[in-house]
Write a structure and sequence with these properties.
mainly beta, 10% helix, 1 helix, 8-stranded antiparallel barrel, 229 residues
């Protein structure tokens, strides 16, 4: 019995020695290192669509057929609409090229002038078709923009004239855009627009005379949110 116990103890000690030797010969494992956190990729290239809205100011003059000024009109109001565009971020650099179009329903109302009753000029809708040149820094984009502008205007004075027409002109401005998620961005933008003169229309209070809109400008500030496809 005593010899059996001694033999069992010796076997256990021998097995432990063999296990220790095997462990010593095995290469050590490198310590565990956590995987680096993924850095979100901001891809500005591609089409996008969104909604936008803001506030605008308009200024214009009325010019009679004999060349005299009939009044100066100024006003302000809000607008809301949609945006479509496409961006190309140049390979290997921060520069971005883009095209963008937008259309808005607006309620920019101007009044004034030497009119009794008062003269009014409303901007009922507007649209722009612009190029963009931007600088990308991670999720941020700063850009300049410019191109063609259109507006539907409604000049009227009770009992004298009441008509609508579409004016064309040019627009310039700039803005900043922030991609807060891989496919979503928000922007803030300013645009200055100057339109060509309007058409001459007859005025009832002065038979044989006519008048037209001149020096028509607008300034707008707006914000928007875009989804990048």
């Amino acid at each position: 019995m005593r010899i059996g116990f001694v033999s069992l103890l010796a076997a256990i000690i021998g097995l432990g020695s063999v296990q220790t030797a095997i462990s010593a010969d095995m290469p050590l494992k490198a310590p565990y290192k956590a995987a680096p956190m993924a850095v979100p990729a901001y891809n500005w290239t591609g089409p996008y669509a969104g909604i936008q809205g803001g506030y605008g100011w308009s200024n214009q003059h009325g010019i009679s057929s004999v060349g005299t000024e009939t009044g100066y009109f100024s006003g302000a109001g809000g607008f809301v609409g949609g945006t479509l565009g496409y961006n190309w971020q140049l390979p290997g650099g921060p520069l971005l090229l883009g095209v963008e179009g937008d259309g808005s329903w607006s309620k920019i109302q101007a009044s004034g002038g030497a009119c009794v009753p008062i003269c009014n000029v409303d901007v009922n809708w507007s649209a722009t078709f612009r190029g963009r040149l931007g600088y990308v820094h991670g999720p941020w984009l700063a850009y300049a923009t410019g191109g063609l502008a259109l507006a539907g205007v409604h000049p009227f004075q009770t009992g004298n004239f009441d008509y609508t027409e579409t004016l064309a002109g040019w627009t310039v401005g700039g803005g900043v855009e922030w991609m807060f998620m891989p496919r979503w961005s928000v922007k803030a933008e300013y645009l200055y627009t100057r339109f060509a003169n309007g058409h001459s229309v007859p005025v009832a209070f002065l038979p044989g005379a006519s008048a037209y809109l001149a020096n028509f400008t607008t300034q707008i500030v707006r914000g928007g949110i875009n989804f990048h496809f």
